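Quick check before the chapter quiz. The format below is the same one you will see on the exam, so make sure you can read both the input and the output lines.
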Amino acid sequence: MSAAPNRKRCAEDMEAGASTSSKDPWATTSFTWPIEGFSKLTSEPVRSDSFEAGICTWRLRMYPEGCDDGEGTHLSVFLEAQDAMWEPTAEFKVTVVNQADASKSRSHDTTRKFDDNAWGDDTIVTLPELRDAAAGWLINDTLVLTANITVQREDRFQLHAGVPCDVMLTLMCGAEMPAVGLFLQAASPFFRGALEDVHGGAPIPVDGSFGAWTFILSDLYPRRDAPTLKLGSVLIVLPVVHKYDFRWLLTRLVAFVKENSELLSHDQNCPDSYVLVWLALAERLQLDELRELCLDRLHGMTKEELQTAITVEVEVGSGDAKQMRRAVRQEVQGLGQAMCCEVLAIAATVPDSPDDDDDA
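Here is the expected output.
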């Protein structure tokens, strides 16, 4: 029997990057990740866009040529808690979708506490199976992964329990979060003005994830356990804290990054600590102290580390003239002309090694 009808149906059901959940942040969340151009990927890990479920922001991490026990033999797939500051427990299933026959899809289904930031399966599908054109895993050179997550609701997440809440925050995902107006006003000039303008207890719409606001409110409320600070969580919380002018918390978060600046790295495969991600955030929020911290980190890198951080090898020419050259990463160009020039000037001050490739 032909597999074509099944392939068509599967393709129609897959919306790139689609995440579905109800307004209840604790409801089961589903996420679909179509990965186009799979055959062109290297052995480096690839990460999906972020999506929200429960108290955390999550993403899928995939190793095209495997890792750990599956290195060189299997596809490896993991669910990653991007801001596992709360060390949540989640029931989840990650699936490599067989687009020709869904019954042949491979899944990893378990319940884990995310005290480590990722769990999954390093031997979920063998590479020979995956690359078999007739097997249905790759259609038009596109691999499809899905995730279903239910984060366990724990008492420590119920920040408003026993607290006289008088304000309702409406988050971007549609979820509502009760809050105490007095604490918000004491901590934020923004909310001092906003609550004066709210009449009849109308909800206040705010940007930011459920996890980010849980972090902020836990910091404001007395006798609440503060979450564990990590670079990934600060990366998510910092823009919200800055936008809503929680000044003392902003100072504390920047101080945390400063104390852990040695973790900022040249490796763009580790986005939570990739120094250019932090430099771009500092530029966007106009945080001078954080900007200088990132520039100092770049100054302290070796030539090899700087090349990894700011350049990428690209193929130029065609036929016999085809060769690899180094080009400036898009992340550097995205910093804006002035900052891009400053980053490149830092790289120019480090002496070239005799065997370095020519810069483009």
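If your answer matched, good. The first strand starts at residue 19 and ends at 20.
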